[in-house]
Amino acid sequence: MKIEVSTKECARFFDISRQGLAEWHLQGCPKDSRGKWNLKQVYDWLIDHKSQNQSIEDARLRWHTARAEKMETEVKKEREELISHDEVVSEWVARVVELKRGLQSWSSRLPMMLEGRNKAEMKKLIRAEVWDLLDQYSRKGKYTPTPKNHKGKVA
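Below the sequence we write its predicted structure tokens.
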């Protein structure tokens, strides 16, 4: 069913000015003839046009949001509030390697240290070796807080 209306009626129906309706026409809104508009065609165009505009606006918003997040990240990097994941991994891998080497060295060092000692002395020496290795592993560094020694005091 075709409902043809005048420019004035069409503008009133969509609650816009005549000038606004003329702008819609320039943007592709269908018009039957001079001063005549098919309400269904105008309505369909408007629904499609608004969804296209909404998609464009959504894309713009996503772009601006991503740009703002990138700029925030840059500022945080400059302020040294962010650290590189690769740098942290590299530092901690180095510490784990040190720990591994320290543990592996025990097989050759401990037998000589413990030879001829009683059980209490062995326990004391082993405990001291463990704490030395833990202290070394948990030492203060770029990505670690100030360590505490085994007595709970700041080293």
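The beta strands are 4-6, 36-38.
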